[in-house]
Design goal:
Creatine Amidinohydrolase, Chain A, domain 1; 14 helices
């Protein structure tokens, strides 16, 4: 009986531990082993005798003594998962001894500063990075300059982040370097024969194909964005200011546990709907306006980017319906073209063919797609589509006042944008829960939303 009790107790311990691990992975999103695999993939792409350096983001001043909210450098986040500023990732093609243990990677972490932590909170320590992020070797950033000065003397190639010039200047040249050219010239003098290349190119192609863990995080951001659209559908009404609708949207992002907006929310009504990246959001919306809402939540660094266009009054006018249905057909044509091997230009051509045939080709003035991931416009190159890419499909028509068309179309801008996963044989719309059909939009807009609470504004009647 005692043996059985011990076995049961051990099983319970294992079960509890598995729950803790599962919770940790869910909270972190990306497993430590995936970060390690990404670093190994970068190292495999490096030439013999090479080292690479990636820098974390830094806090940026907003005013005298106030910083903007910190956002981690996306390449650094992709390779490390480290959440705080000031760290440095060092990679080497060949293993080298470090604390008696050969390694390919070292994470340099800012030293503990209790006085600063009193103001801004604790940063992840080297020990925490070893446990949580799977690093075998960590060091203090205070060691970095001397370490690099010694290391570069025996290396033939450095893949570098241009910001490294500010960190190496004391040891490398003993002067302050102001430009990338000055840095390259100074390094060449101190380390003859050392070749410098961009570290970013080693990572960009890797980021194009999303892993299952990345897709889970992206879906979380996309679902929150869809929920925000639905709440904005319900809340929009004549008399609201654009910023009130923006507030509803971004409240929904935070309510769903997201970091906030992945980019400044675009809520453009009336004439503002014809400006592609309008961001002021200060106009009072009027009866008869269309409003373009190009928005995206960010979750654990990953972006969504979904656009819907709705009539402020809740019902499409005939000319609005006409233009909207053209854009909707263009969307369907572009989606039908999505599959591995297709080029971005082919997607744009498919949408443009529909819009041009309807007589509005002059007013569709952007490409129909871009990559999506850690960045809203993921800088991963624009070669043929591959399975695992996440892209947008976003045709539009934008007719400003004074355009050479019937004036009934003036000040109508329409964009419909979805986030799309490229699959083995085609595509999957990740933002499909945000309706695009006119009847569905009007039915949702007939409901009350959280933005309809009285706030003392003078409302127009529908």
């Amino acid at each position: 009986m005692a043996l059985i009790r011990r076995l049961v107790f051990c099983c319970l311990l294992v079960f509890a531990a598995s729950l803790i691990v599962a919770d940790a992975l869910d909270a972190q999103g990306i497993p430590a082993e995936e970060y390690a695999q990404r670093r190994r993939a970068v190292i495999e792409r490096m030439d013999s005798g090479a080292v690479a350096v990636y820098l974390a983001g830094t806090s940026k001043k907003r005013s005298n003594d106030v910083d903007f909210e910190f956002v981690q450098d996306k390449n650094f986040l992709y390779l490390t998962g480290y959440p705080d500023p000031g760290a440095i990732l060092f990679l080497s093609k060949e293993k080298f001894p470090r604390n008696g243990q050969p390694t390919h990677a070292i994470l340099f972490v800012p030293p503990t500063n209790p006085a600063m932590e009193q103001w801004v909170g604790k940063h992840m320590s080297g020990e925490e990075a070893r446990i949580t992020l799977g690093f075998g070797s960590t060091a203090s950033t205070s060691e970095f300059r001397a370490f690099m000065d010694s290391t570069l003397k025996t290396k033939r190639l450095l893949y570098y982040d241009p910001r490294i010039s500010l960190m190496l200047s004391d040891k490398v040249t003993h002067v302050r370097l102001r430009t990338g050219r000055e840095f390259r010239n100074a390094v060449s003098k101190r380390y003859p024969g050392l070749v410098l290349r961009s570290a970013f190119r080693l990572v960009s192609s890797q980021r194009a194909r999303k892993s299952p863990a990345e897709l889970r995080l992206m879906q979380k951001a996309i679902d929150a964005t869809v929920d925000a659209h639905l709440e904005a559908f319900r809340s929009a009404e004549p008399g609201m200011f654009e910023y009130e609708l923006e507030a509803v949207i971004e409240y929904c992002f935070r309510r769903e546990g997201c970091d906030g907006p992945a980019f400044p929310s675009i809520v453009g009504s009336g004439p503002n709907s014809t400006t592609l990246h309008y961001e002021k959001n200060t106009r009072r919306m009027r009866k008869g306006d269309m409003v373009v809402m190009d928005i995206g939540a960010e979750y654990q660094g990953y972006s969504a980017d979904v656009t819907r266009t709705i009539p402020v009054s809740g019902v499409f006018r005939p000319e609005q319906r006409e233009l909207y249905e053209i854009v909707l057909r263009a969307r369907e044509a572009a989606l039908a073209a999505v599959k591995p091997g297709v080029r971005f230009s082919e997607l744009t051509d498919a949408a443009m063919e529909i819009i041009r045939a309807a007589g509005f080709g002059k007013y569709f003035n952007h490409s129909v797609s871009h990559h999506l991931g850690l960045d809203t416009h993921d800088p991963v190159g624009y070669g043929p589509l591959e399975e695992g890419n996440v892209i947008t499909i976003e045709p539009g028509i934008y007719i400003p006042e004074g355009a050479n068309v019937d004036r009934k179309y003036w000040n109508i801008g329409i964009r419909i944008e979805d986030d799309v996963l490229v699959t083995k044989d085609g595509y999957e719309i990740l933002s499909k829960e945000a309706p695009v059909e006119i009847d569905a939009i009007e039915a949702i807009m007939a409901q009350e939303g959280i933005g309809n609470l009285p706030v003392g504004r003078e409302k127009e009647t529908r």
